[in-house]
């Protein structure tokens, strides 16, 4: 007996020859093909409007045969056939067949046909050469299996027409046995959802538009539901390992530190801190996402939470996304803590602690010393980059993991540190300055509670942003004059470039004789060159040194190819005001905090995303003086300029995040491992499906909450296992 057909059955056992072209489109299993949802549907009662068809494009049209003529061929034997089809709106299209054979009987005037081909022009007429077609209808001449319902149109599969794809789907649907449904019956009943088997048929072979919509909604809901269930299960399993409660200890380090603070906490900071300390008192591990607007003061909050944990006997790890940021955190926390971070040292506080730092570029001895401080518990706080801490550090008693500026990491990374603690879960605090729209928060951080700080400390000065078009040389020139003026007033300036560049890069246009017009005149002037070379740090540094207005300034550079020592020295020099202008790549994007920096020039600004520009800009206006951000761009496309204008028009991070999300694809939002090679998200759009995600979130968390092991939901369990395995395989392949 043949094996039962399931969603995992290979297509080649069912569709024979079509399996080869389908595999080219990565459609290998029954599931792959059935999740290859129609791109759109045609109404069989309504011919396609031909005026919308683009030339050279593969099209699928529904039309009526107007007439057909057969002509003897002059050059060779046989006859050709030209049929004219019309769309009922006055537009005609010619179908040309170089052999009339078989078509004469089918293409009879008055018949409605479904045609697939590529539009071309010939003799002033639009035509399809050798298209494939099916005759619709119920009569004996009908060659189509499509009924009265909407006709599915599939995205292009090389060497297959949409009709052939539909035929393969038809074979598969007939072969397929009842499939297990990952959505529990009760949830289906609640929303009136059809069972999976039916939904798959309804989405590919709907009898009505209503049926098609219903099925599609169900499949979309399933994507959201399964994703939420996966997050819920993950959360359940980590909750199953209790955390050590870390209640505040009055009068200890946290309190002493608060007394030392030169400022009052904002209301937002107070509130978030209260939420965190509340979490820390419990045996349920904290999973909190702190979203705080750029410059809202997240570090102090995190530091207070860490001290809290130290006070009750634990250690805290602070994971930074870059080495520059790790070093800066170490330096600024050590400074803020003062004597409190000098335990065991002369003049240090008796019940103080130590802050250890781990970076990739420390000397072996230095690293050993810091590792020892972590392992012995002498260091209450261990700061480092994600990779380093995750891989190498032993803690005496890790109680809290703070992940700073996590806006590019999937769910997996957060879990890695849990393994560091035997028998107990550490509490986790994830901080991000990229405001995360609700749907993304629910999808990527669906397993976390959220705290939000929108307020920035009072007295903070506003940032003004302008777009400077590279082709307006007077403005470009003015920009560099502004830089020089800012420095003259005692301010400091960041100049951000999209790449590092090479020592031997050609000089910027204008070369050494950069006169009025400025060094960055951009090659955008010649309009054909739309991929003008991006400006590199090394190039721009050189140009600024040669430009009259900026030549006397103290210019430093910072980028990823430098040795860590150099980077650190430069940051320190910029921090202490010994460098006026820092030309850098986006290494300064997150977290870097130099209050005296008041101006930023972002070169080739169109190369950066909205959130990234907002982040970058957040490096200025952190002190008491207002900030000025100049976005230089030679982009000509209106879309890029619109993006820059949007960034210039508001400093509301949430507003910008919404805009940003609307412009991105889901994979970018969720990260590679979330989306995977074969993303489980086909229909779901984080930007548009907020309501649906909210419903799925509630249902999934309830189902998992009531039945953490999913004993009563083996189909859902199996689906989660399948996705896990797929993701693991994807990660393995790299
Ligand atoms: P972000 O949330 O972007 O990480 P930081 O934590 O780096 O912001 O804080 C930005 C700056 O604001 C730091 O210099 C910090 O010392 C300062 N700061 C934090 N909280 C306050 C406050 N309540 N009042 C005044 N300044 C503050
Ligand atoms: Mg920060």
Automatic annotation (TrEMBL):
InterPro entries: ATP-dep_DNA_helicase_RecG, DEAD/DEAH_box_helicase_dom, Helicase_ATP-bd, Helicase_C-like, NA-bd_OB-fold, P-loop_NTPase, RecG/Mfd, RecG_dom3_C
Leader sequence residues: none
Helicase C-terminal domain span: 507-662
SMART domains the record matches: DEXDc, HELICc
EC number(s) stated in the UniProt entry for this protein: 5.6.2.4
Record domain Helicase ATP-binding: where: 279-453
Catalytic activity line of the entry: ATP + H2O = ADP + phosphate + H(+); Couples ATP hydrolysis with the unwinding of duplex DNA by translocating in the 3'-5' direction
Keywords: ATP-binding, DNA damage, DNA recombination, DNA repair, DNA-binding, Helicase, Hydrolase, Isomerase, Nucleotide-binding
Lineage: superkingdom: Bacteria
Gene3D superfamilies attached to this UniProt entry: Nucleic acid-binding proteins, P-loop containing nucleotide triphosphate hydrolases
UniProt similarity note: Belongs to the helicase family. RecG subfamily.
Annotated protein name in UniProt: ATP-dependent DNA helicase RecG
Gene name as annotated: recG
């Amino acid at each position: 007996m043949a094996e039962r057909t399931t969603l995992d059955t290979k297509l080649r056992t069912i569709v024979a020859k079509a399996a080869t072209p389908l595999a080219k489109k990565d459609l290998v299993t029954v599931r792959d093909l059935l999740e290859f949802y129609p791109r759109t549907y045609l109404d069989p009662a309504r011919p396609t409007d031909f005026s919308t068809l683009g030339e050279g494009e593969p099209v699928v049209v529904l039309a009526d045969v107007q007439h057909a003529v057969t002509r003897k061929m002059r050059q060779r034997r046989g006859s050709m056939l030209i049929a004219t089809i019309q769309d009922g709106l006055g537009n005609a299209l010619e179908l040309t067949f170089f052999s009339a054979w078989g078509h004469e009987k089918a293409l009879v005037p008055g018949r409605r046909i479904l045609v697939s081909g590529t539009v071309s022009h010939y003799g002033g007429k639009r035509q399809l050469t050798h298209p494939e077609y099916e005759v619709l209808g119920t009569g004996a001449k009908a060659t189509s299996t499509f009924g009265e319902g909407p006709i599915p149109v599939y995205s292009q599969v090389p060497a297959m027409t949409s009709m052939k794809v539909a035929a393969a789907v038809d074979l598969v649907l007939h072969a397929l046995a009842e499939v297990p449904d990952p959505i529990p019956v009760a949830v289906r009943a609640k929303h009136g959802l059809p069972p999976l088997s039916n939904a798959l048929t309804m989405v590919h072979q709907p009898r009505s538009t209503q049926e098609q919509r219903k099925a599609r909604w169900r499949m979309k809901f399933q994507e959201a539901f399964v994703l939420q269930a996966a997050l819920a299960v993950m959360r359940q399993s980590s909750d199953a390992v209790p955390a050590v409660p870390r209640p505040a200890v009055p009068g200890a380090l946290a309190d002493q530190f608060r007394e030392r603070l030169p400022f009052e906490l904002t209301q937002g900071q107070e509130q978030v801190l209260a939420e965190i300390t509340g979490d820390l008192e419990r045996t349920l591990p904290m999973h909190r996402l702190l979203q705080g607007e750029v410059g809202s003061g997240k570090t102090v909050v995190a530091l207070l939470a860490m001290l809290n944990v130290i006070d009750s006997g634990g250690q805290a790890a602070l994971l930074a996304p870059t080495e520059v940021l790790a070093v800066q955190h170490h330096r600024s926390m050590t400074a803020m803590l003062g004597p409190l971070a000098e335990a065991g040292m002369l003049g240090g506080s008796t019940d103080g602690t130590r802050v250890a730092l781990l970076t990739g570029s420390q000397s072996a001895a230095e690293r050993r010393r810091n590792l020892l401080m972590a392992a012995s518990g002498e260091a209450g706080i261990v700061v480092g980059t994600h990779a380093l801490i995750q891989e190498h550090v032993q803690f005496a008693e890790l109680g809290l993991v703070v992940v700073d500026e996590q806006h590019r990491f999937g769910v997996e990374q957060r879990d890695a540190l849990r393994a560091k603690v035997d028998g107990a879960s550490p509490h986790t605090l994830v901080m991000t300055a990229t405001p995360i729209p609700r749907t993304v928060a629910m999808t990527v951080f669906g397993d976390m509670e959220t705290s939000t700080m929108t307020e920035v400390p009072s007295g903070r000065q506003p940032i003004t942003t302008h777009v400077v078009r590279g082709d307006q040389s007077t403005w470009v020139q003015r920009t560099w004059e502004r830089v020089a003026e800012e420095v003259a007033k005692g301010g400091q300036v960041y100049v951000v470039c999209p790449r590092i560049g090479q020592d031997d890069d050609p000089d910027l246009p204008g070369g050494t004789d950069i006169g009025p017009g400025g060094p960055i005149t951009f090659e955008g002037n010649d309009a054909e060159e739309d991929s003008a070379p991006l400006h590199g740090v090394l190039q721009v540094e050189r140009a600024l040194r040669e430009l009259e207005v900026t030549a006397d300034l103290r210019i430093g550079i910072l980028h990823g190819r430098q040795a860590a020592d150099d980077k650190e020295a430069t940051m320190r020099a910029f921090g202490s005001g010994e460098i006026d202008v820092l030309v850098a790549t986006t290494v300064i994007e997150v977290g870097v905090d130099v209050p005296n920096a008041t101006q930023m020039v972002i070169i080739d600004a169109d190369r950066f995303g909205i959130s990234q520009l907002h982040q970058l800009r957040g490096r200025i206006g952190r002190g008491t003086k207002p900030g000025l951000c100049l976005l230089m761009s030679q982009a000509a496309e209106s879309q890029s300029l619109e993006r820059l204008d949007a960034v210039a028009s508001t400093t509301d991070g949430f507003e910008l995040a919404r805009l940003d999300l609307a412009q991105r694809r889901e994979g970018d939002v969720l990260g590679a491992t979330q989306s995977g090679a074969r993303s489980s998200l086909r229909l779901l759009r984080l930007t548009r499906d907020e309501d649906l995600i909210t419903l799925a979130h509630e249902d999934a968390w309830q189902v998992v909450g009531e039945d953490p092991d999913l004993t009563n939901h083996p189909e859902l369990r199996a689906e989660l296992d399948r996705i896990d395995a797929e993701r693991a395989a994807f990660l393995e392949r790299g």
